[in-house]
Amino acid sequence: MNRDTDDDRKTDQGKNIPIDLRSCIWTSSSASMAPHIKARCLVYPGSDTQRFPVPDDKVNWDTDWPQYSPVTYTAPTVEKKPVWADPEIGTFCPDFNSLDASVDRRSHEGPYRIQNGKPLNPHGRTGVEGRGLLGRWGPNHAADPIVTRWKKDLTGQRFSHASSQLPVLQFVSIKRLDCGEWAIPGGMVDPGERISQTLQREFSEEALNSLQASPSEKEKIQKRITELFSSDGLQVYKGYVDDPRNTDNAWMETVAVNFHDES
To answer: Where is coiled-coil annotated (predicted)?
Structure first.
């Protein structure tokens, strides 16, 4: 299961930013300081379903709110029971907060609550119950490879930003065809797959599919990608993703790893 469909993506591009790498390491606790925002967007993506409005002060599950009445929505594509999606609660017995056979139902945020047999989003209310566009009840795990290099001039020396005088870091990104926004070329972790495998698989698919290159050129690129991803990389984030597809019972999580090319 890919995090984005092929139709949603366009090409890999180099983006330039002046940056101090030490400032880029995030933790899930850093991202949890404020209530999620995208996960409360008024209209659920890919549908006409409107969320039950959730104000900032009512996001937390511990806040008493008897009037809360989320709408129920599971996308038709998920209801068709593709291989990457769980069945409905009541028709199977998932082992939440555990490695359930080949499906990892553990959260990077720690143990999550179960209510009426369904997992509760650890970041609070979203205005929608069910799974929406997501296949798994509970966490839906993704991996995001952040491939970087320092921008260099024609002599091979590092290029410095005119204002900050910091070296300019380039990274590989993709342009989504559905919304025109730039994104990191990540994807969903397949059942039984290691994060390291997902990172290389997703990046290889994105990079090679977007290039107009001969088979021999693609073979060289694949070899270079394999060499780059043979290192452990630097984990810069692990945790919850504020994603518009999230619901009260299904949500996105990711591990983002930086692979820096010094060549």
So the answer is: none
